[in-house]
Structure formats: structure tokens, C-alpha cells
Amino acid sequence: MSTLPACPTCQSAYTYEDGALLICPQCGHEWSANAVDITDSKQIRDSAGNVLQDGDSVTVIKDLKVKGSSSVVKIGTKVKNIRLVDGDHDIDCKIDGFGAMSLKSEFVRKVQD
């Protein structure tokens, strides 16, 4: 009996083969048996090329205008405990004095601990 990989979506062990595809009967997800999972290989990097991770601290390297406000996030502002997300603005964070914001990774530098 061959062992098939678990479903990448719901982790069900009841996957089966249908030609070149693997199918999960619980959630209906279909994927190629030869496919390489590219979601793990995407890395978000800061302006200096350092790889960013959830929970890192970063420093803003450029004055950033806050959309819909006359406020500016000043250069050197330290942002703690970032969250990486998909999209154009790939960092979600809270900045003291401003609240929740989304930033682009090209305007921050990772703080080395």
C-alpha cells in the first residue's frame, strides 16, 4: 500500500489519486503530485535585503506620509512585533501615536538584536 501525502489545505489523510492529480474528499482540494509548494519559498525582505519574519522589530528609513491625515511617520521610528501579510503593503503593525498601519517592506530596516 502506497502512502499519499496529507491534504495541504485541511491536513486530511484520506487523499486519493485521480490520474496525475491528488484529491482530498473532505475539502475537495486538488493538486498535482509533482507540484512544488511555492508559498513557503516567498520571502519578504527589508531595504537592506534582510529576511523579515513575524514578530521582528524594524525601523522606518524614510519619512512616510499617513494617507488621509496630515501626520508623518518620521525616519527612525521603531516598530515592534510586525506581522507579514500578502499584498502591496506587506507589513501590518501598530505604531505608537498612529495606531494600526500597513507598511511596505522597502521602507523599513530590520533591527538586529
What does this structure look like?
The structure is a single chain. The protein is mostly beta strands and 113 residues long. The protein contains no helices and eleven strands. A hairpin with a 6-residue loop joins strand 5 (64-65) and strand 6 (72-73). The protein is elongated and about 55 Å long. The relative contact order is 0.17.
Whole-angstrom Rg = 20 Å
The total of helices stands at: 0
Mean pLDDT: 87
Q: How many strand segments?
A: 11
What is the general shape? elongated
Decide which structural class fits the backbone: mainly beta
Q: Secondary-structure map with pairings?
A:
Layout: E1 16-18, E2 21-23, E3 30-32, E4 58-60, E5 64-65, E6 72-73, E7 78-79, E8 83-84, E9 91-95, E10 99-103, E11 108-110
Antiparallel strand pairs: 1-2, 2-3, 4-7, 4-11, 5-6, 8-9, 9-10
Record keyword descriptors for this entry:
single chain; 113 residues; mainly beta; 3-stranded antiparallel sheet; 0% helix
Outline of this structure?
The chain is mostly beta strands and 113 residues long. Helix content is 0%, strand content 29%.
